[in-house]
Amino acid sequence: MNNKIRTDLALEVRESFPEDDVEIKGVILTENYDEENDIRVSTVVIKDERGAKAMQKPIGTYITIEAPEIDKSSENNHKAVTEEIARQLRKLAGDLKGEEVLVVGLGNREVTPDALGPQVVDNLFVTRHLIKEYGTDFKEKHHLGNVSAISPGVMAQTGMETVEIIKGIIKETQPKLVIVIDALAARSIHRVNTTIQLTDTGISPGSGIGNNRKALNEESLGIKVIALGCPTVVDAATIVSDTLTSYMEHSGFDETDIDKFISEVREQQIDNMFVTPKNIDESIKRISDTVSEALNTCFAQAV
Amino acid sequence: MNNKIRTDLALEVRESFPEDDVEIKGVILTENYDEENDIRVSTVVIKDERGAKAMQKPIGTYITIEAPEIDKSSENNHKAVTEEIARQLRKLAGDLKGEEVLVVGLGNREVTPDALGPQVVDNLFVTRHLIKEYGTDFKEKHHLGNVSAISPGVMAQTGMETVEIIKGIIKETQPKLVIVIDALAARSIHRVNTTIQLTDTGISPGSGIGNNRKALNEESLGIKVIALGCPTVVDAATIVSDTLTSYMEHSGFDETDIDKFISEVREQQIDNMFVTPKNIDESIKRISDTVSEALNTCFAQAV
Amino acid sequence: MNNKIRTDLALEVRESFPEDDVEIKGVILTENYDEENDIRVSTVVIKDERGAKAMQKPIGTYITIEAPEIDKSSENNHKAVTEEIARQLRKLAGDLKGEEVLVVGLGNREVTPDALGPQVVDNLFVTRHLIKEYGTDFKEKHHLGNVSAISPGVMAQTGMETVEIIKGIIKETQPKLVIVIDALAARSIHRVNTTIQLTDTGISPGSGIGNNRKALNEESLGIKVIALGCPTVVDAATIVSDTLTSYMEHSGFDETDIDKFISEVREQQIDNMFVTPKNIDESIKRISDTVSEALNTCFAQAV
Amino acid sequence: MNNKIRTDLALEVRESFPEDDVEIKGVILTENYDEENDIRVSTVVIKDERGAKAMQKPIGTYITIEAPEIDKSSENNHKAVTEEIARQLRKLAGDLKGEEVLVVGLGNREVTPDALGPQVVDNLFVTRHLIKEYGTDFKEKHHLGNVSAISPGVMAQTGMETVEIIKGIIKETQPKLVIVIDALAARSIHRVNTTIQLTDTGISPGSGIGNNRKALNEESLGIKVIALGCPTVVDAATIVSDTLTSYMEHSGFDETDIDKFISEVREQQIDNMFVTPKNIDESIKRISDTVSEALNTCFAQAV
């Protein structure tokens, strides 16, 4: 049944396996819970091809930060979440030593739940041009990271694959690391706007809210790629089939009936629809503030 | 079962009754189909309290223009749709004779599917101030209608009920007619971004995508109120329960089981979620262009 | 020569008088300088009609906060400026005791230097609807002020005078105080984006960047009106005539020649033009963040 | 005196020469006036290095379309202007035969007068991805040009030179022609928002509203580059010095005095300021509509 799951979160794929299958071969899950700030950090490591096949995700590390309050106006744990994101990002990025980083804000700024990437880029402290102009002394005096950034837009706006645009820019500007920011699709509504996923595997086709674009990863771009995403939508077909599956399992239907229903749902018009909360504008604003603050902190300390 | 329906379209409420109940007492349905332009106009008239109770909508006229191509880039029938909207609007508004009209763009401009009202207002040809300054001769020479407009924002942004804001403005500026533009919720996905509803009953609580605000109608505002809306979302709970109900009915479940399931779905977190297409930005842009063009035409001819 | 000045800042009007005329009858100027944070607070009090005539501004108090770093990315004195604005605002507003405040964001959100008001409102913590719904206990428990807000748009967008819109809303919602936020025109370029003016006299016709609208003050609205503004532009005619006047005075021209030149400049097409810095988007973003933070602080403490 | 001029319009440079110097060596000026539609087309051809030095612009063709009504709401000559732009564009571009075109919208979408390029790109009919997916038959059936587009943002937002970004993208996507859309600076206020300049020389450093970026032209990008621009601002220093120069010449000052004054003006703070009309939002909206319509027409006919 796992191949019916539609989620960008490795953690949700892992959860879809039976509870007693705690040790899927080739996949390691570790968890940490900060009770004071209500922040849970789960790390899924896919070690080999066997794990990749089971998880249907590339080999690599997937860190999930769950912080239910991340999109709330209360500022109780805002600082704690920001610092946790920066800490996990440094873990994946290694010591940047002030080397050049290109941040790419994926998504369509005109569609609210897809605007996370562009809004994070809007709030970044971009410095590459300043360092080019004023030199290394200026950089060190002001503790600047070396940051460039772009929000290229989606294929319906540009007519180009994002990977074509980014590959071209990288060849010209020669950064050492790419960080890709994107809105993701979760399977469960309660993960929407409460979760950050970081991974060193980049972005694979069909991620985000379903646009068909080619991978952005170390293989395609030639340098290390870290993807930072937050689920802001659930696929409409997923929400319908999950709700009914849960009901049908509970009511004692057999698997054949359930599969038949699911395939019927999939044939309907909801294939290009997504589900998102009514106050998505406020959530996107708060989460993009938090993520950009985490990035700015991380780069400044990376000098 | 009708009380489980969540739709702003009178036509969908009418359709929810059994097919053989063609003549609900107190409700009259007439239809016209323009085959050349693929435009269907359905008029639901709720004549009396009996009809209002059956339909759970106020007494009045509800005109639905269905034009599947309204949000497409092809311009084939763009002019035909624009003229049809203007024609139906004049039917409801009567002869304006150049009298003052206030257009209100409801909704949140920061949430794409809710931005229809503000975007229509952005494209309106507003003239009231020009007529105040240059006089009646100027107005007649340039064939101007007398138009003012406002996009007040939603309650989460203003802290005020929309009816408080609009009532106050009407008292000061004394228009003869209010036209309220709003994004609606449909029950069926195929009505999203393909349908325009016009009604002389205004907007009732719980309309739009679910914000709890008081009615905007002749009773509350003291002058005639026409509402023009386009469904841009489906309530997430509605899509789940409708899909499953349809499956369960088809599979021979009895009504008690279905009701039990529906109430379970309602209790879940999807209560404040909506479903919308991925390319909602393009649809909203095209529909708001069409509606504002219809309004501008209608006002100019109303001199 | 004073009637040739085009500025919204009382401080600049005061400065336009000869230096030895330190004690204009009816006008009192006091100054305070916080050296550590480089914040200068000047208070101009116009006591009577004689002062009002000399200054060509209504009787009342005008507080100017000069903080050269307010639009810079450095956060050195961000907190100090925010607190100074909140402190001066409380001085003018008196003890709010949790009473209702309506904040009005004037200006056109589509024109960058005029978008200050709307952007401040976008960042406000609006609470009136929450208190209506959850009651006084909720308000006190969460230390909430009672805040409503609106950005009505400019007359070219609405066809209505702002005073008509706000007067109507006030009658319906009955706030105790109105705070109007607006982008202003300064005379000197070095005051642009570095200065905040607070006044208990509201907004007078011809303020802002020159839209002809009627006054928003206690007389027109019936309740106390505080205006908080920041100069973001200089009138183009002012910059030309000031630059030349300065040169001509310096070069020994007599006043007749200068007056003749000024009137020629005024006749040219630059009458509806303004001057603004190239990075105005960044400045507006930072200043609106600072002002909204000051307002949010002030309201929260006003409970 | 020519080196004091600050304008992106070749026509204005040409006009700055004495009237009797009708035949500057190496520069040819031809004019056409369409009286019915009030559209004037002037073509400046810089033939050789001598002309380039005199004009301080690269060798090439500069076509200026002056249409005073282009930013007005009246639609009188809207179609005529659109067709004129398309006609002149085809003259410079040659027969595209359906080959790939990349449109680049320069400028900062957050600063109203600088948002022309991004807004034109927003309205373009982008097709490259459709042709990649559905093939040549689809392209020919629907009479599609092959169009991709990007609005990269300005250096303060990206940290990168625009030329780096575009050069990289071109290497990956291999278009045959680049069309660069940009907001320009004029010398005379009456050219602002009334003029379109097309040139086959691309964009040179210091164009637009003064950002220091490297050239976008055939030499730097390796393929043909057409720049289409519209002046939306006047440099603040230019407006001051031009107004005063005109007055001083008129009043019989000698050139030394004038030069001294100009250099004093240049030293002041107005160096990073621009002048723009108050209703710049409406003008930008109308001009970007017109330009994008001209481009869409041109590409569709280029199949």
TrEMBL record, chains A, B, C, D:
GO terms, biological process: proteolysis; spore germination
Annotated keywords: Hydrolase, Protease, Zymogen
Gene3D superfamilies listed in its UniProt record: HybD-like
Pfam (any one): Peptidase_A25
Reaction equations catalysed: Endopeptidase action with P4 Glu or Asp, P1 preferably Glu > Asp, P1' hydrophobic and P2' Ala
Alphabetized InterPro entries for the sequence: Pept_HybD-like_dom_sf, Peptidase_A25
Annotated EC: 3.4.24.78
A single MF term (Gene Ontology): metalloendopeptidase activity
Record PTM: Autoproteolytically processed. The inactive tetrameric zymogen termed p46 autoprocesses to a smaller form termed p41, which is active only during spore germination.
Propeptide: 1-8
Complex formation: Homotetramer.
General function of this protein: Initiates the rapid degradation of small, acid-soluble proteins during spore germination.
Family the UniProt entry places it in: Belongs to the peptidase A25 family.
Full protein name: Germination protease
Species the sequence originates in: Variimorphobacter saccharofermentans
